[in-house]
């Protein structure tokens, strides 16, 4: 009788484990990915994966605990297959989300024709990843069941390859931005996103305007005419300072750093010229009029120049008493 009772207990525990396994499978069958249309890209992205992730965490722990039970023998191979399936699904989704995160960052960058033209190798790689992403998301949106979607042959390898290409693209992008900054050091004051906003629309030099104050502390904006030729700069106070020569950004052939370097040179050249002229004009008219005739920065510089010169004359003539 004891032997019968023992066998009955073993059978009950084995059945309990098998029912628990069937329950896990049953919980996964209705689970679907939530695919959302992403802006006007014509494709989808995954969202709201917290519940799916929670189910993974719960079931992986349960499965590992069940595999350690002495009563799992009759269906051990089935349990092992299920554990392998869970881990495989988790790895696929991890790679999927990693790919999505980088794709979301790079998609607006490589939707710019200017960036595509300036970075042909990276553009080619992104096109390859983008094609794979759209195909996968289109298929998933049509059949969002998690068990089916992650059972596609070669899916894990596809996402691994996509992430490898995305890493190369990001490295190429960083190298490209570094090259631009080394060509014009003031671009180091801009973040990657800010610099990319400028580089993504090189045909429109006005895109630089919002970022000028970071590159040139004293310049609020540049004066562009209808042909987008630069003739002057404006201070934060709204004071207009004309350049000695006009600058044509279009002649830089999309090289933003090239015409911004010209702006830096023009800024220094016009201020140097104005400072020399204001210095010569200082003694020819009343100070109240002279102050109004010249830009504020020039007035401050020349005023300090004359103050220093007059102070030196006083010290040379009478020492400290001369002050």
From TrEMBL:
<dbReference type="InterPro" id="IPR042228">
    <property type="entry name" value="Dynein_linker_3"/>
</dbReference>
<dbReference type="GO" id="GO:0000166">
    <property type="term" value="F:nucleotide binding"/>
</dbReference>
<dbReference type="InterPro" id="IPR026983">
    <property type="entry name" value="DHC"/>
</dbReference>
<dbReference type="GO" id="GO:0007018">
    <property type="term" value="P:microtubule-based movement"/>
</dbReference>
<keyword id="KW-0966">Cell projection</keyword>
<dbReference type="GO" id="GO:0030286">
    <property type="term" value="C:dynein complex"/>
</dbReference>
<protein>
    <recommendedName>
        <fullName>Dynein heavy chain linker domain-containing protein</fullName>
    </recommendedName>
</protein>
<keyword id="KW-0175">Coiled coil</keyword>
<dbReference type="GO" id="GO:0051959">
    <property type="term" value="F:dynein light intermediate chain binding"/>
</dbReference>
<feature type="domain" description="Dynein heavy chain linker">
    <location>
        <begin position="2"/>
        <end position="277"/>
    </location>
</feature>
<dbReference type="InterPro" id="IPR042222">
    <property type="entry name" value="Dynein_2_N"/>
</dbReference>
<keyword id="KW-0547">Nucleotide-binding</keyword>
<dbReference type="InterPro" id="IPR013602">
    <property type="entry name" value="Dynein_heavy_linker"/>
</dbReference>
<keyword id="KW-0206">Cytoskeleton</keyword>
<keyword id="KW-0963">Cytoplasm</keyword>
<dbReference type="GO" id="GO:0045505">
    <property type="term" value="F:dynein intermediate chain binding"/>
</dbReference>
<dbReference type="GO" id="GO:0042995">
    <property type="term" value="C:cell projection"/>
</dbReference>
<dbReference type="Pfam" id="PF08393">
    <property type="entry name" value="DHC_N2"/>
</dbReference>
């Amino acid at each position: 009788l004891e032997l019968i009772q023992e066998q009955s207990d073993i059978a009950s525990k084995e059945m309990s484990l098998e029912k628990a396994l069937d329950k896990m499978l049953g919980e996964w069958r209705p689970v679907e990915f939530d695919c959302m249309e992403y802006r006007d890209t014509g494709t989808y992205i995954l969202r709201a994966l917290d519940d799916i992730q929670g189910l993974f965490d719960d079931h992986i722990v349960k499965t590992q605990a069940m595999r350690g039970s002495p009563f799992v023998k009759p269906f051990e191979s089935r349990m092992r297959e299920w554990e392998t399936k869970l881990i495989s699904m988790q790895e696929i989704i991890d790679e999927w989300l990693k790919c999505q995160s980088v794709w979301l960052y790079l998609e607006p960058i490589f939707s710019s024709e200017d960036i595509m033209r300036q970075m042909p190798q990276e553009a080619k790689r992104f096109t390859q990843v983008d094609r794979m992403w759209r195909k996968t998301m289109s298929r998933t949106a049509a059949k969002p069941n998690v068990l089916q979607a992650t059972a596609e042959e070669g899916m894990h390898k596809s996402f691994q390859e996509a992430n490898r290409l995305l890493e190369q693209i990001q490295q190429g992008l960083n190298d490209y931005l570094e090259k631009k900054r080394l060509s014009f050091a003031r671009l180091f004051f801009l973040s990657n996103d800010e610099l990319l906003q400028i580089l993504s629309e090189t045909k429109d030099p006005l895109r630089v305007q919002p970022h000028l104050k970071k590159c040139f502390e004293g310049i609020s904006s540049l004066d562009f005419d209808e042909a987008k030729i630069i003739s002057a700069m404006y201070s934060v106070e709204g004071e207009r300072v004309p350049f000695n020569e006009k600058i044509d950004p279009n002649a830089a052939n999309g090289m933003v750093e090239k015409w911004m370097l010209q702006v830096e040179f023009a800024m220094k050249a016009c201020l140097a010229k104005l400072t020399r002229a204001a210095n010569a004009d200082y003694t020819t008219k009343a100070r109240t009029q002279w102050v109004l005739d010249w830009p504020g920065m020039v007035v401050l510089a020349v005023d300090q120049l004359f103050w220093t010169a007059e102070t030196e004359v006083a010290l040379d003539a009478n020492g400290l008493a001369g002050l």
